[in-house]
Each structure stands twice: as structure tokens, then as C-alpha cells.
Amino acid sequence: MMAARTLRSTxxxxxxxxxxxxxxxxxxxxxxxxGAGDSTGAAIARAFAVDGFLVCCVRxxxxxxxxxxxxxxKAGHDAEGFGVDCRDESNVQNLVEDIERRLGPIDVAVFNxxxxxxxxxxxxxxxxxxxxxxxxxxxxxxMGKEVASRMLPRxxxxxxxxxxxxxxxxxxGFAAFASAKFGLRALSQSMARELGPRGLHVAxxxxxxxxxxxxxxxxxxxxxxxxxxxGLVRPQDIAxxxxxxxxxxxxxxxxxxxxxxxxxxx
Length: 266
Hints:
- This protein has 266 residues and is of the alpha/beta class.
- Helices cover 44% and strands 16% of the residues.
- The chain has nine helices and seven strands; from the N terminus they run H-E-H-E-H-E-H-E-H-E-H-E-H-H-H-E.
- It comes from Aphanomyces astaci (Crayfish plague agent).
């Protein structure tokens, strides 16, 4: 395992003392977004911010996560940023402790780490396989375990895991990624069955289709044509589903859903 980065909040720089302290002594509900990247993760963070949460955005790169935090604040919403490698258990424990102590109770936790790679099985090294599993599955377990321990005494909370096509189908060249996503799905199912009767809503959301991101457009020339015919999944539409699932009444909980554009073959 690579050395874990030290937990640090990146959101307090250049802020007036009274502004910082006022934020830290509020008890506003928090939404923890692990894997708050440039596209889907950022959209999920923005959606929960608009919904009234103080969003705690987490990714390994503390500089990039701060850019997301500032954009959310400029829109008039609350956000904090953390540069954390969530493959390390102590990092995750410190992260959750820090948020609950300074900012407020975590009411929603989203695990959105990707780690999609493509190698033939003979070219997949042990290091690659292990790293993908640590990022896309093991760190999800660490987050889920830690936030569940805080939510259970309160008898409420939502834990959401982002899945992919590889969560249900191991395609050629995706042995490492599919193995990790299969594992994450199993984790979500086990947690849902264990924690649901105790008031915690756990769900797995499968995104089956190309997402409208710069990376897709750079690597797949046909993406532009798909975009015209609404054949790419928009990050903001994915994010809206996460908020909807969180607000579901206990009488009608979804524990797994799949989302894809209308032209996707499945």
C-alpha cells in the first residue's frame, strides 16, 4: 500500500476567524463525499449542497478538492475540503472524527471512488490489481464501517456506493476493476441487510454508460454524436438520483438501482 497522506482540511485558508468559528460551531447536517472528483463526484457534492447540506468533499489531491469547495461556496452553499487517502484506516477514522466533532453529524455518506483501468489479464500486475482493489473496494469498506458506527446510535443515516457496468459484468480486460466493483456491490448488499432494520439506508447505484466528461470526449471521438442524441449520462442527472434516494421514505427504500442513457445497449 502506498503511504497515506496526512489528513488535512484545505478549506480554512485565508478565512476570517469569526467566519471559520461560526461554521465550526453549527450543527448542520453533513454530507460526506469520498471521491469528489472533477465530474460525477463534484456534481454529487453540488447537488447535496443545494439540498442544504454542508458537503465535506474528499479526494487525495487537496489542491483540486479546494477548487471544488470554492466553487460551491461562490454559489452560496456550504462546503469543506479534505485531502485524504482513504485507503488508510487511521486516515478514515480521523476524517470522520474531525467532521463529526467540528462540523456536525454525517447524515449522508457517498463513496464515489473510481479506479477504472484496462489491462489484459497477463499484463495485470499484482501491484495494479491490489491498488485498484484498495481504491475501489477496500476504501469503501473503511468509509462504510466508520460512518455506520456514528450513524447507528442516532438510528438514521444514508450510505451510498457508486457502482458501474463492471459491478455486474466482468468484461475482457477489466479483471482488476470488475473484481473490485463486484466486491463493493457485495459490501453494499451486506450492509443494507444488516443496517436497514436499524434505521440506516444503504444503496448501490450502478452507472451503466459513458458519462459526459472531458476524458470521454478526448478518448472517444464518437462521444460528440452521442451527446447530441442524449446518449451520454450527465453528471448532474446522476447526482440528482443520489439526493432522491436519500430522501426516500422508510416505507419505500431502494437498495440498488441502475441508470443508463436511453440509447445504451444492455
